[in-house]
Specification:
The structure holds two protein chains of two kinds.
Chain A (H helix, E strand, L loop, with lengths): L4 E5 L4 H14 L5 E7 L6 E6 L19 H9 L8 E5 L1 H12 L8 E6 L7 H6 L1 H13 L8 H4 L14 E4 L7 E6 L2 H10 L6 H41 L2 H7 L8 H5 L19 H11 L1 E3 L4 H12 L8 H5 L6 H15 L29 H4 L3 H5 L1
Parallel strand pairs in A: 2-4, 4-5, 5-6
Antiparallel strand pairs in A: 1-7, 2-3, 6-7
Helix pairs in contact in A: 2-3
Chain B lengths: L13 E4 L3 H14 L5 E7 L7 E6 L22 H9 L8 E4 L2 H12 L8 E6 L14 H14 L9 H4 L11 E3 L11 E5 L2 H7 L5 E3 L6 H19 L5 H7 L8 H5 L19 H11 L1 E3 L4 H12 L8 H5 L6 H15 L28
Parallel strand pairs in B: 2-4, 4-5, 5-6
Antiparallel strand pairs in B: 1-7, 1-8, 2-3, 6-7
Helix pairs in contact in B: 2-3
Classes of the chains: A alpha/beta, B alpha/beta.
């Protein structure tokens, strides 16, 4: 994070000030286009819109109450084949930016001309809760987020510990609101790309020293508050994961968790980092002759059909856990209310911790699976007989 | 559907059995497995232990159909359209030995439609279905409310009525009497379902497999006033339901505006059998330049794009074969009435060709038939 920054302030709220600032970036030709959530035609949800007309920004919502599409996925769709020729600013939540960064490392997004702009995130409501009554949902979100009350938010958001620039430092620009007086926010740069934007946007005219003092105080207050919230969230996350682990550890329990899965694969389809065009589990590889299924039914007494339900989830987890950004999109899309986002978050955290990696926090950190270190993971090199003394005797 | 149409699907022979419907079906399936007459039974059952869910399984162990067994063959729930599952089972070729399948009428129609689309094989599949009172939505299977509803469900079934909480798609279904089943279990409008059961043996195969059951064989046509009444009620509900959704382009943009692009509707649709949907394919992975071009033209565009295009494309591909099973609505995380829209369009498309999907395996799919004299009005 650089020292560069500005303070946003407006009588009608931070959102209005931020949108005004975004309009300026278009008017000043700093960006050619913006990718930002905008209300849908029916007014009952939000969708990412790529826009260049500043006027459309009046219906934009930088922090909508729900996350119908993961912004990382939207950025991926836009840039999967090539760098856009236009300079695009993407206004997304921190987990969405992290997904975009992860996709870029997986060569599924091209971010050279994309400026990732994030905001301190209070979480989002579960999509199903919100859609019951979007007007009431929006009001509930507004009230809760004003107080940084995460209790009505999605379970993954309730225990999110990557809600600000401090924990998602790969973003180019960040709007900090935590700890700022009502109606104000700080915009700080997370990268040289962000720095450059702030320099270009420097409007000048005001007393520079006074401005700098004000900014320094605001940034310090914001930073202190972010640290405090981070501490509390980290503890909540640890506790929640400990409890969840009790509920899901072991094949039996895991089978129970996924027993109501209907194999719609919505989780995979909405996951920003599950980028395979065709999932292995939907491929011809698993379309087998009837004898295969019937033989399995005979061996086990009964074969769940479609088969491979748990295998699908374990397979998906092993493919993407290292890149999981805990966004919770999978859980939102599950028609059976399976805590799939919480389970994958837990698996992701553990896998990433084991390899000293945090998904989507840096463009430079290499993906663990494409990096090689001579000295790592010695604990799994231990011979079986040392890990499980006497087990061989029992097995025999 | 002409007058008295609900009974036309029944053959003249039926078996009256002095025990409840659930018991009868369990005993039939258990004896079929025990005697080795069938190799396996596809039916609903509990999975993942007592607190687990409900899923289709291929049951091989007869004990699954014992009084405390895991199978739940008549549960009014549809976690997957079994037509799609039968297609998966027989995609690579027919089963070598008989397999029985307990399916709802819309699942049966889906399977027959898939067979016509060369996605499955009917050989050696013993189809057992029932007069259907609809199923409860998926979310009622999550919180235990389905289980609590069952006494009401069966009480109302005896009265020939549908519970108000079954899916709207089911309440609007006109095809609740299975056609093409080997055995039809009479459920809707049958008094004393816990002590009496009537099995309609519609085919020779059905008669052969159910022949060992103890009961009285009765011949002669049997009209069911209750089925006729249910048909009228469902038609009225259907009209109301269809009137509530528009399917013009503006309506589609409005309603599908909240679509999250999960394509779950396509994944659970039994008719959408493509391994890789066009809309998930490389054709829809566009270079950034494409979006920039659209942006210049329109000033703003939704990303990911193709939201309504996907729905229209899917509709164009499968509406003629849509069996109205309602899985698409049930699975939708954005609560979009997908099935109502697709059924409405499907019914209109099917009417043009006088085609009813899944009615008869020998009936050609309209897109595969050619008539020299048709649609002259659009040929001008």
């Amino acid at each position: 994070m650089s020292d560069n920054g500005i303070v946003l302030a407006a009588e009608d709220g931070v959102e209005a000030a931020f949108i005004g600032w975004l309009k300026e970036t278009l008017n000043k030709n700093i960006f050619d286009a913006l990718l930002i959530p905008v209300g849908t035609p029916a007014g009952d949800s939000f969708a990412y819109l790529l826009l260049q007309e500043p006027a459309i920004l009046d219906s934009a919502s930088p922090l909508p109450p729900v996350m119908p599409v993961q912004g990382g996925k939207a950025i991926g769709r836009l840039t999967m084949r090539e760098n856009p020729s236009k300079r695009i600013a993407a206004v997304v939540r921190p987990c969405e930016a992290r997904a975009a960064i992860e996709l870029s490392k997986l060569e599924q997004a091209h971010l050279d001309n994309v400026c990732l702009i994030t905001l301190d995130c209070p979480g989002v409501l579960p999509l199903a809760d919100y859609l019951v009554d979007p007007v009431a949902g929006a009001a509930r979100f507004k009230e809760a987020s004003a107080q940084w009350d995460r209790s009505p938010m999605r379970p993954t958001c309730q225990v999110c510990d990557h809600f600000s620039l401090r924990q998602a430092p790969g973003c180019d620009l960040h709007v900090g609101t935590l700890g700022c007086p009502d109606g104000t926010a700080v915009v700080v740069a997370g990268s040289s790309k962000g720095d450059h934007v702030l320099e270009q946007m420097d409007m000048g005219g005001q007393d520079e020293d006074e401005q700098a003092d004000f900014l320094n105080t605001a940034v310090t207050d914001w930073g202190t508050q972010v640290e405090q919230v981070e501490e509390a969230q980290t503890e909540r996350r640890r506790q929640a994961q400990e409890d969840l682990r009790e509920e899901i550890a072991g094949a039996e329990k895991l089978l129970g968790v996924f027993s109501s899965c209907i194999n719609c694969h919505n989780c995979q389809r909405v996951c920003p980092v599950c980028y395979c065009r065709q999932c292995y589990f939907e491929s011809a590889a698993l379309k087998l002759p009837a004898e295969n299924y019937l033989a399995r039914a005979e061996r086990k007494g009964a074969l769940r059909f479609s088969p491979d339900t748990l295998l699908f989830h374990i397979g998906r987890a092993s493919h993407m856990a290292l890149s999981c950004v805990s966004c919770g999109a999978c859980e939102d899309a599950c028609p059976m209310d399976i805590p799939v986002g919480q389970v994958f978050s837990l698996l992701g955290d553990r896998a990433q911790k084991a390899l000293g990696y945090v998904a989507g926090t840096s463009l430079e950190d290499p993906l663990p699976l494409v990096s090689y270190e001579m000295d790592e993971l010695h604990e799994v090199e231990q011979p079986y007989v040392e890990v499980y003394p006497n087990q061989e005797v029992q097995d025999a | 559907m002409p007058e008295g149409a609900t009974s036309s699907a029944f053959a003249s022979e039926r078996l009256q059995i002095n025990q409840g419907a659930e018991e009868t079906v369990r005993e039939l399936l258990r004896s079929l497995l025990e005697s080795g007459k069938v190799n396996a039974v596809l039916a609903l059952g509990r999975t993942g232990g007592p607190s687990g869910g409900v899923a289709y399984s291929l049951f091989r162990d007869p004990e699954a159909f014992g009084a405390d067994g895991d199978a739940l063959p008549l549960l009014p729930f549809m976690p997957a359209n079994a037509g799609g599952l039968l297609s998966r089972l027989t995609l690579e070729g027919p089963v070598a030995e008989p397999v029985a399948a307990v399916v709802k009428p819309c699942e049966l129609r889906a399977f027959i439609e898939l067979v016509k689309l060369s996605q499955g094989n009917l050989d050696n599949i013993l189809l057992i279905s029932s007069t259907c009172g609809g199923v409860y939505p998926l979310d009622m299977g999550i919180d235990g409310s389905l289980e609590k509803k069952l006494p009401t469900y069966w009480e109302r079934m005896e009265q020939g009525e549908l519970d108000d909480d079954v899916r709207p798609t089911c309440r609007a279904c006109e095809s609740f009497v299975p056609e093409g089943a080997d055995i039809t279990v009479a459920l809707l409008g049958e008094a004393d379902l816990d002590t009496q059961c009537t099995l309609h043996l519609n085919t020779e195969r059905g008669a052969a497999f159910a022949g060992d059951m103890e009961g009285t064989t009765v011949s002669g046509k049997r009209d069911s006033e209750a089925l006729e009444r249910s048909l009228d009620e469902r038609k009225a509900f259907r009209e109301e339901l269809f009137a509530g959704v528009g399917v013009g382009l503006k309506d589609l943009i409005h309603t599908f505006g909240r679509c999250i692009g999960c394509h779950g509707c396509k994944t659970v649709c039994p008719i959408c059998y493509c391994r890789l949907c066009y809309f998930d394919s490389q054709n829809c992975e566009r270079p950034a330049g494409f979006y920039e071009g659209e942006l210049a033209r329109k000033g703003g565009l939704r990303v990911p794009s193709d939201t309504v295009y996907f729905q229209l494309g899917r509709m164009a591909h499968m509406a003629i074969s849509c069996v109205g099973c309602g899985m698409c609505t049930d699975v939708c995380p954005a609560d979009i009435p997908v099935s109502t829209m697709f059924s409405k369009v499907g019914a209109a498309a099917q009417a043009v060709f006088d085609y009813q999907p899944g009615r008869d395996v020998t009936e050609e799919i309209p897109l595969r038939t050619f008539e020299e004299e048709e649609f002259t009005e659009v040929a001008t």
